[in-house]
Amino acid sequence: AQKVTQAQTEISVVEKEDVTLDCVYETRDTTYYLFWYKQPPSGELVFLIRRNSFDEQNEISGRYSWNFQKSTSSFNFTITASQVVDSAVYFCALSEHSGYSTLTFGKGTMLLVSP
Amino acid sequence: EPEVTQTPSHQVTQMGQEVILRCVPISNHLYFYWYRQILGQKVEFLVSFYNNEISEKSEIFDDQFSVERPDGSNFTLKIRSTKLEDSAMYFCASSVGGQSYGYTFGSGTRLTVV
Description:
The structure holds 2 protein chains of 2 kinds.
Chain A: E1 3-5, E2 10-14, E3 19-21, E4 24-26, E5 32-39, E6 46-52, E7 59-61, E8 64-69, E9 74-79, E10 88-96, E11 104-105, E12 109-114
Parallel strand pairs in A: 2-12
Antiparallel strand pairs in A: 1-4, 3-9, 5-6, 5-10, 7-8, 8-9, 10-11, 10-12
Chain B: E1 5-7, E2 10-13, E3 19-24, E4 31-37, E5 43-50, E6 53-57, E7 65-68, E8 75-79, E9 88-95, E10 104-105, E11 109-113
Parallel strand pairs in B: 2-11
Antiparallel strand pairs in B: 1-3, 3-8, 4-5, 4-9, 5-6, 7-8, 9-10, 9-11
């Protein structure tokens, strides 16, 4: 069965600090997809990234970067020079190739960025 | 950019009442989903729907729940005889062809059962 673990429940940083959110996953499939979503206080789920299991290249998008390592089953998310607007709950999620594309979410990490 | 639209944004209902949560998926999407998030907890899969039938459902999705695509545009989640523990944020999502194409989530309906 698939499982996603986000061990960090809450992280507090001061603006401009870099912060890394950890995500460890478990799956028996060789083909799978990993996601990160942001949930701001308003409650909606904002898509950040999707990565398939065959693409281990790290990705950078502005202040955001993702490090995918199959060897350790991790898909970590780094925010560089954090800002107050980054304060939110961040969810990592996994979808296996088999089945109908359901997402299994981690419990989320609450990021608090103070000025 | 196309959106998944959910109505209402917030619904309050009395315990034992039936509620219908409505979603309008993106028009060319073929896969539809409902997820639930109890306050402060993780997002949990309820049900997926494809080709006018349920394709997969979780243990949470018991006989109290049902889904329907009544008119080719709306996708509804019905909860019969609501319980206090049904209070949660309910998210609808749609996908054009499965996880390789990604999902689009609606902004959610916050259901409060009193």
